[in-house]
Amino acid sequence: MPSAAERFHDIVRQASAQRAPLRVRGGGSKDFYGQAVQGELLDTRSHAGIVAYDPTELVITARCGTPLAEVESALAEKGQMLAFEPPHFTPDPDGRSLATFAGMIAAGLSGPRRAAAGAVRDYLLGVRIMDGRGRELVFGGQVMKNVAGYDVSRVMAGSLGSLALILEASVKTLPRPPAEVTLLLEMPEATAIESLNRWAGMGWCVSASAWMGGELRVRLSGASAAVRTAVQAIGGQRVDDAAARRFWTGIRDHQDGYFKGDAALWRLSVPQTAAPLGLAGGQLIEWGGGLRWLRSGAEAGTIRQAAERTGGHATLFRGGDRSSEVFHPLSPVLAEIHRKLKAVFDPEGIFNPGRMYKAL
Asked: In this structure, is residue 12 part of a structural domain?
């Protein structure tokens, strides 16, 4: 009986020969993200399992269809974690996570700890992929010092399956912090942004932040002594540990009440020091001011111009009018780089065509 990888090879080769699009997906937890894709479904979940995990080396390697919850459970048993807190988003009807390991990489999305710990791509050590010709290629490795092909591995992070089929990947892990406390403070938006940047400059161990509706929640993580010092310096009301975990999971997976409703959800990436943007709609600010969620019916051009004025960009993350591009328009130079990468990895354009940009 052929393996899942062998079946993928046959599917990809046939699609390439016929120039027929393939809709690459795992559990479908991020189907809402980007543009809808037409074509034959290539479900990656049959190629699953943790290939290798060495807690002493802080590296885990898993196949594409491995449930993300399975990977995180294996790490938790050893007191470790995926430091970038990848979101799981939409669960199945029984509340179980649908997210897969390769879907985490392909989406390239990070959770509340992103500003403190880094992004998905920063922890991606190596990948085994299948290109648009059906060839298996390996880039990078399983240790930080093995950097051959390192940048190619990182290109896969955030590519939304538009370049290649990720068969397997190796990711760096980190120990869980020994102490963690969440504080609640009342303050207006401008004061929250200023405070978060001031605390960052002072080296306080802030691992996550979320401001909305005049309330700022700050999570402190690290050595017990460092957390105690930061708590005393920042002040505010301590949040119950169980309630804090529920809150940050709700922010990570967009299960918090802020994310409910039909209004378009925009994701604005701006400099952490950017002043309030003055846009109509409800905001939730993360990452020390660098990530600004916006529920708004404002025109796309208005929102994108506001982000551009700060040197940032805006993505129509969920809902809204998706008849035009949902991701921020690329500069001519970046657009050419995208086209060349697509031509190299997927010359017949079969992998998730149009998922990121209509021309790709």
From this structure: yes
